[in-house]
């Protein structure tokens, strides 16, 4: 069978129903997820407040990277403007808290919905672009955002930004503020991963995989590229907007300089290092985005960017498929050893 025919067969299978997953593998995934969730729940009771804050930010970045992974890893698109949707969620929440005094929890779905609509709007031109042209358009959005936020000073606070109150833990929980924020971020992250997992198992996810593997073959099999590319941008933006909303809860402050193009590039580096096309990639990428810049700063105060870049190159040399791929290889090797033992 020719390579083209094989791609068409695989794309058709993905569009119809996707590959079958063995029950043992499904059980193993659920057991692993339950163990990780239990460890995550115990984490804030074992660490100092600053480290709890760091892991809270890891969860925030993981949700943002989940959306970027959907777009880049599963749909095969490229975006250098993901930080703009993150900023939309953050500033949308900040404005709702500052101007309208809405409850914190109510701001999350509104900010995510606004980001989703903007993602749909961006998805329309994205239907006609690909590769470097699409990257350039999304990069322009990230560059354009910062001066736009500074211009509307009466709404966004301009260069000074907005200072906001953080969610207060209910008395019945007995939690400190840092622990409460951590559990809020954990709840949002858990819901986001469940939603993303369901989306990828649905017809939408199968269609995205078919388009990523071979767009022409997928179109022959009945997949409409324009529809699903637009949906990919919209869902990606929704997750980024939700992450930006939780970011505002955790930090209690937003300013334009927090959402420069550097954020978009860092997020893209994070998902590539974490592992494209894997649900394990976003949390691993979140750890990378949160901790590696601080490590680079400690190694060399004068040139943290150089150290950061070298660390990315080193990780990609050791694990070309990302940290998730490396973890998968280690797990498979361990299972083989245990079977032989």
UniProtKB/TrEMBL annotation:
It is a multi-pass membrane protein. Keywords: Cell membrane, Membrane, Transmembrane, Transmembrane helix. The chain crosses the membrane at residues 52-72, 79-97, 103-124, 131-149, 180-200, 231-252, 258-277, 306-331. InterPro entries: ABC_transp_permease, LivM-like. Pfam families: BPD_transp_2 (PF02653). The keyword Transmembrane applies. It is found in: Cell membrane. The keyword ATP-binding does not apply. This is Branched-chain amino acid ABC transporter permease.
């Amino acid at each position: 069978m020719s390579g083209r025919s094989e791609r068409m067969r695989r794309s058709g299978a993905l569009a119809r129903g996707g590959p079958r997953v063995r029950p043992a593998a499904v059980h193993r995934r659920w057991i692993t997820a339950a163990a990780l969730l239990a460890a995550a729940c115990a984490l804030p009771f074992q660490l100092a407040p600053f480290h709890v804050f760091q892991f809270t930010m890891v969860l925030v970045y993981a949700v943002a990277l989940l959306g970027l992974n959907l777009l880049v890893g599963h749909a095969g698109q490229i975006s250098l403007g993901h930080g703009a949707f993150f900023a939309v969620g953050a500033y949308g929440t900040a404005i709702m808290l500052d101007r309208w005094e809405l409850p914190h929890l109510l701001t999350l779905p509104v900010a995510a919905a606004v980001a989703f609509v903007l993602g749909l709007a961006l998805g329309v031109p994205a239907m006609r672009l690909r590769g470097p042209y699409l990257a350039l358009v999304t990069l322009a959005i990230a560059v354009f955002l910062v001066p736009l936020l500074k211009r509307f000073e009466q709404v966004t606070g301009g260069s000074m930004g907005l200072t906001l109150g953080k969610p207060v833990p209910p008395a019945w929980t007995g939690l400190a503020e840092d622990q409460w924020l951590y559990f809020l971020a954990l709840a949002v992250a858990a819901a986001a991963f469940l939603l993303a997992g369901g989306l990828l198992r649905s017809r939408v996810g199968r269609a995205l995989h078919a388009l990523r593997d071979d767009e022409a073959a997928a179109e022959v099999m009945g997949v409409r590229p324009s529809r699903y590319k637009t949906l990919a941008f919209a869902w990606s933006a929704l997750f980024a907007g939700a992450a930006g909303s939780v970011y505002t809860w955790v930090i209690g402050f937003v300013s334009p300089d927090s959402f420069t193009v550097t954020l978009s590039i860092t997020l893209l580096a994070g998902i590539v290092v974490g592992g494209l096309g894997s649900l394990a990639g976003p949390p691993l990428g979140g750890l990378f985005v949160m901790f590696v810049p601080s490590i680079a700063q400690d190694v060399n105060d004068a040139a943290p960017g150089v150290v950061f870049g070298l660390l990315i190159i080193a990780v990609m040399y050791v694990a070309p498929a990302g940290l998730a791929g490396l973890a998968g290889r280690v797990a498979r090797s361990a299972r083989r050893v245990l079977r032989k033992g």
